[in-house]
Amino acid sequence: MFVSEGAVVAISDLTSPNETAVEIEAHAYKCDVSSESSVRSFIADVQNEHGPIDVYVSNAGVGSGNGKFVAGGSNESWELAWQVNVMGSVYAARRLMPDWVERGHGRFVITASAAGLLNQIGSASYSCTKHAAVSLAESIAIEHGDQGIQAHCICPQYVRSNMTKGMPMAEGSQDGLLEPKDVANALKAAISADEFMVYPHPVVKDYFINRAMHPDAYLSGMRKLKAKVGRAFQSKG
Protein backbone atom coordinates (compact mmCIF):
# COMPACT_ATOMS: atom_id res chain seq x y z
CA MET A 1 0.00 0.00 0.00
CA PHE A 2 2.77 2.44 0.93
CA VAL A 3 4.79 1.52 -2.17
CA SER A 4 1.74 2.16 -4.37
CA GLU A 5 1.50 5.62 -2.80
CA GLY A 6 5.06 6.39 -3.89
CA ALA A 7 6.87 5.81 -0.60
CA VAL A 8 10.32 4.29 -0.29
CA VAL A 9 9.63 1.27 1.93
CA ALA A 10 11.99 -0.79 4.08
CA ILE A 11 10.76 -4.02 5.65
CA SER A 12 12.41 -6.27 8.20
CA ASP A 13 12.13 -9.72 9.73
CA LEU A 14 14.23 -12.07 11.85
CA THR A 15 15.82 -13.22 8.61
CA SER A 16 16.13 -10.77 5.74
CA PRO A 17 12.76 -10.85 3.85
CA ASN A 18 14.36 -10.66 0.41
CA GLU A 19 11.61 -12.54 -1.45
CA THR A 20 8.86 -10.29 -0.10
CA ALA A 21 10.94 -7.18 -0.73
CA VAL A 22 11.38 -8.13 -4.38
CA GLU A 23 7.66 -8.91 -4.70
CA ILE A 24 6.49 -5.53 -3.39
CA GLU A 25 9.50 -3.44 -4.50
CA ALA A 26 10.74 -2.69 -0.99
CA HIS A 27 14.14 -2.89 0.68
CA ALA A 28 14.88 -5.85 2.95
CA TYR A 29 16.62 -5.79 6.33
CA LYS A 30 17.23 -8.23 9.12
CA CYS A 31 15.97 -7.13 12.53
CA ASP A 32 15.07 -8.76 15.83
CA VAL A 33 12.62 -6.35 17.46
CA SER A 34 13.16 -7.93 20.88
CA SER A 35 16.69 -6.48 20.80
CA GLU A 36 17.10 -2.73 21.22
CA SER A 37 20.47 -2.76 19.49
CA SER A 38 18.98 -4.60 16.51
CA VAL A 39 16.11 -2.10 16.23
CA ARG A 40 18.50 0.83 16.46
CA SER A 41 20.74 -0.71 13.79
CA PHE A 42 17.77 -1.29 11.49
CA ILE A 43 16.64 2.34 11.82
CA ALA A 44 20.18 3.66 11.37
CA ASP A 45 20.78 1.54 8.27
CA VAL A 46 17.51 2.66 6.68
CA GLN A 47 18.23 6.32 7.39
CA ASN A 48 21.78 6.08 6.10
CA GLU A 49 20.71 4.40 2.88
CA HIS A 50 17.33 6.01 2.17
CA GLY A 51 17.08 9.20 4.22
CA PRO A 52 14.88 10.26 7.15
CA ILE A 53 12.03 7.99 8.23
CA ASP A 54 8.55 9.56 8.05
CA VAL A 55 6.39 6.55 8.99
CA TYR A 56 7.25 3.60 11.21
CA VAL A 57 4.93 0.58 11.36
CA SER A 58 5.56 -1.66 14.36
CA ASN A 59 3.94 -4.84 13.15
CA ALA A 60 5.83 -7.81 14.65
CA GLY A 61 3.85 -9.97 17.07
CA VAL A 62 3.97 -13.32 18.81
CA GLY A 63 1.47 -15.36 20.79
CA SER A 64 1.39 -18.58 22.77
CA GLY A 65 -1.25 -20.49 24.69
CA ASN A 66 -1.92 -20.59 28.41
CA GLY A 67 -1.99 -24.32 28.85
CA LYS A 68 -4.49 -25.62 31.41
CA PHE A 69 -4.48 -22.51 33.60
CA VAL A 70 -4.61 -18.81 32.76
CA ALA A 71 -1.11 -18.04 34.07
CA GLY A 72 0.33 -21.06 32.29
CA GLY A 73 3.09 -20.92 29.76
CA SER A 74 6.74 -20.56 30.56
CA ASN A 75 8.35 -17.40 31.88
CA GLU A 76 10.27 -17.35 28.62
CA SER A 77 7.06 -17.26 26.55
CA TRP A 78 5.65 -14.42 28.65
CA GLU A 79 8.91 -12.49 28.36
CA LEU A 80 9.07 -13.02 24.60
CA ALA A 81 5.50 -11.70 24.24
CA TRP A 82 6.46 -8.62 26.25
CA GLN A 83 9.65 -8.00 24.31
CA VAL A 84 8.13 -8.41 20.84
CA ASN A 85 4.60 -7.07 21.35
CA VAL A 86 5.57 -4.08 23.51
CA MET A 87 9.27 -3.37 23.80
CA GLY A 88 9.86 -3.64 20.05
CA SER A 89 7.70 -0.52 19.71
CA VAL A 90 9.34 1.13 22.72
CA TYR A 91 12.80 0.64 21.24
CA ALA A 92 11.75 2.16 17.91
CA ALA A 93 9.90 5.08 19.50
CA ARG A 94 12.85 5.77 21.80
CA ARG A 95 15.11 6.12 18.75
CA LEU A 96 12.71 8.02 16.47
CA MET A 97 10.90 10.49 18.73
CA PRO A 98 13.76 12.94 19.37
CA ASP A 99 14.37 13.36 15.63
CA TRP A 100 10.66 13.58 14.83
CA VAL A 101 9.97 16.17 17.51
CA GLU A 102 12.87 18.26 16.21
CA ARG A 103 11.56 17.97 12.64
CA GLY A 104 7.97 18.59 13.73
CA HIS A 105 6.45 15.54 12.05
CA GLY A 106 6.39 11.76 12.07
CA ARG A 107 3.85 8.94 12.12
CA PHE A 108 4.09 5.88 14.39
CA VAL A 109 1.79 2.93 13.70
CA ILE A 110 1.38 0.06 16.16
CA THR A 111 -0.34 -3.14 15.13
CA ALA A 112 -2.03 -4.16 18.36
CA SER A 113 -5.06 -6.42 18.08
CA ALA A 114 -8.72 -6.63 18.96
CA ALA A 115 -7.29 -8.61 21.87
CA GLY A 116 -5.77 -5.34 23.06
CA LEU A 117 -9.24 -3.85 23.40
CA LEU A 118 -11.08 -7.05 24.30
CA ASN A 119 -9.36 -10.36 25.06
CA GLN A 120 -7.89 -13.41 23.36
CA ILE A 121 -9.32 -16.60 24.83
CA GLY A 122 -6.57 -19.05 25.66
CA SER A 123 -3.64 -16.63 25.63
CA ALA A 124 -3.40 -14.27 28.59
CA SER A 125 0.16 -13.31 27.63
CA TYR A 126 -1.01 -12.18 24.20
CA SER A 127 -3.96 -10.22 25.60
CA CYS A 128 -1.92 -8.56 28.34
CA THR A 129 0.83 -7.42 26.02
CA LYS A 130 -1.57 -6.25 23.32
CA HIS A 131 -3.40 -4.15 25.92
CA ALA A 132 -0.01 -2.64 26.71
CA ALA A 133 0.61 -2.00 23.01
CA VAL A 134 -2.66 -0.05 22.77
CA SER A 135 -1.65 1.97 25.83
CA LEU A 136 1.75 2.78 24.32
CA ALA A 137 0.12 4.00 21.11
CA GLU A 138 -2.19 6.21 23.19
CA SER A 139 0.79 7.56 25.11
CA ILE A 140 2.53 8.54 21.88
CA ALA A 141 -0.59 10.38 20.73
CA ILE A 142 -1.02 12.14 24.09
CA GLU A 143 2.61 13.03 24.75
CA HIS A 144 3.63 14.07 21.23
CA GLY A 145 0.42 14.83 19.33
CA ASP A 146 0.89 18.57 19.76
CA GLN A 147 4.44 18.28 18.45
CA GLY A 148 3.39 17.08 15.01
CA ILE A 149 3.57 13.33 15.72
CA GLN A 150 0.63 11.23 14.57
CA ALA A 151 -0.07 7.81 16.08
CA HIS A 152 -2.31 5.02 14.87
CA CYS A 153 -3.31 1.79 16.59
CA ILE A 154 -4.51 -1.09 14.41
CA CYS A 155 -6.88 -3.47 16.21
CA PRO A 156 -8.06 -6.25 13.87
CA GLN A 157 -9.44 -9.61 14.78
CA TYR A 158 -8.06 -12.52 12.78
CA VAL A 159 -5.98 -11.77 9.68
CA ARG A 160 -4.67 -14.41 7.30
CA SER A 161 -1.01 -15.01 8.16
CA ASN A 162 1.36 -17.72 9.31
CA MET A 163 0.22 -16.98 12.87
CA THR A 164 -3.44 -17.79 12.10
CA LYS A 165 -2.81 -20.63 9.64
CA GLY A 166 -4.61 -23.76 10.82
CA MET A 167 -6.17 -21.95 13.80
CA PRO A 168 -9.84 -23.08 14.07
CA MET A 169 -10.94 -19.88 15.85
CA ALA A 170 -9.43 -17.80 13.05
CA GLU A 171 -10.58 -19.80 10.07
CA GLY A 172 -14.08 -20.15 11.51
CA SER A 173 -14.41 -16.61 12.87
CA GLN A 174 -17.96 -15.27 12.72
CA ASP A 175 -16.61 -11.82 11.84
CA GLY A 176 -14.43 -13.06 9.00
CA LEU A 177 -10.76 -13.79 8.38
CA LEU A 178 -9.35 -10.69 6.72
CA GLU A 179 -6.62 -10.53 4.11
CA PRO A 180 -3.53 -8.39 4.86
CA LYS A 181 -4.59 -5.94 2.13
CA ASP A 182 -7.83 -5.31 4.03
CA VAL A 183 -5.83 -4.16 7.04
CA ALA A 184 -3.58 -2.00 4.84
CA ASN A 185 -6.62 -0.32 3.29
CA ALA A 186 -8.11 0.32 6.74
CA LEU A 187 -4.85 1.95 7.82
CA LYS A 188 -4.79 4.06 4.66
CA ALA A 189 -8.30 5.32 5.41
CA ALA A 190 -7.34 6.12 9.01
CA ILE A 191 -4.26 8.04 7.88
CA SER A 192 -6.35 10.01 5.39
CA ALA A 193 -8.87 10.89 8.12
CA ASP A 194 -6.16 11.34 10.77
CA GLU A 195 -7.93 8.84 13.03
CA PHE A 196 -6.01 7.20 15.86
CA MET A 197 -7.88 3.91 16.10
CA VAL A 198 -7.94 1.58 13.10
CA TYR A 199 -10.74 -1.01 13.02
CA PRO A 200 -10.21 -3.39 10.07
CA HIS A 201 -13.16 -5.34 11.54
CA PRO A 202 -15.57 -2.41 12.19
CA VAL A 203 -17.62 -4.56 14.59
CA VAL A 204 -14.70 -4.47 17.06
CA LYS A 205 -15.61 -0.86 17.85
CA ASP A 206 -19.08 -1.99 18.88
CA TYR A 207 -17.64 -4.79 21.01
CA PHE A 208 -15.25 -2.33 22.66
CA ILE A 209 -18.04 0.12 23.51
CA ASN A 210 -20.19 -2.69 24.90
CA ARG A 211 -17.27 -3.91 27.03
CA ALA A 212 -16.80 -0.44 28.51
CA MET A 213 -20.51 0.11 29.19
CA HIS A 214 -21.46 -3.38 30.33
CA PRO A 215 -18.33 -5.11 31.69
CA ASP A 216 -20.14 -7.90 33.54
CA ALA A 217 -22.28 -8.76 30.53
CA TYR A 218 -19.16 -8.69 28.34
CA LEU A 219 -17.32 -11.12 30.64
CA SER A 220 -20.35 -13.40 30.75
CA GLY A 221 -20.50 -13.41 26.97
CA MET A 222 -16.80 -14.22 26.71
CA ARG A 223 -17.24 -17.16 29.07
CA LYS A 224 -20.03 -18.45 26.84
CA LEU A 225 -17.76 -18.04 23.82
CA LYS A 226 -14.99 -19.93 25.62
CA ALA A 227 -17.40 -22.82 26.31
CA LYS A 228 -18.55 -22.78 22.69
CA VAL A 229 -14.97 -22.85 21.41
CA GLY A 230 -14.17 -25.72 23.77
CA ARG A 231 -17.09 -27.74 22.43
CA ALA A 232 -15.96 -27.05 18.86
CA PHE A 233 -12.47 -28.35 19.61
CA GLN A 234 -13.89 -31.47 21.25
CA SER A 235 -16.18 -32.19 18.28
CA LYS A 236 -13.16 -32.09 15.96
CA GLY A 237 -11.41 -34.76 17.90
CATH topology: Rossmann fold
Silhouette: globular
Structural class: alpha/beta
Query: Which percent range describes the beta-strand content?
Result: 5-15%
Lateral arrangement of strands in the main beta sheet? 3-4-5-6
The number of E-state strands comes to 6
Largest sheet: 4 strands, parallel
Tell me the series of helices and strands, N- to C-terminal.
Answer: EHEHEHEHEHHEHH
Q: Rg, please?
A: 18 Å
Oligomeric grouping of the chains: single chain
> Which parts are unreliable, with pLDDT below 50 for 5 consecutive residues or more?
232-237
Please report the distance between the alpha carbons of the first and last residues: 41 Å
CATH architecture title? 3-Layer(aba) Sandwich
SS element count, helices? 8
Average pLDDT reading? 92
Kindly give the count of domains. 1
Helix coverage percent? 40-55%
User: Which superfamily, in CATH terms, is the homologous superfamily?
Assistant: NAD(P)-binding Rossmann-like Domain
What's the CATH first level?
Answer: Alpha Beta
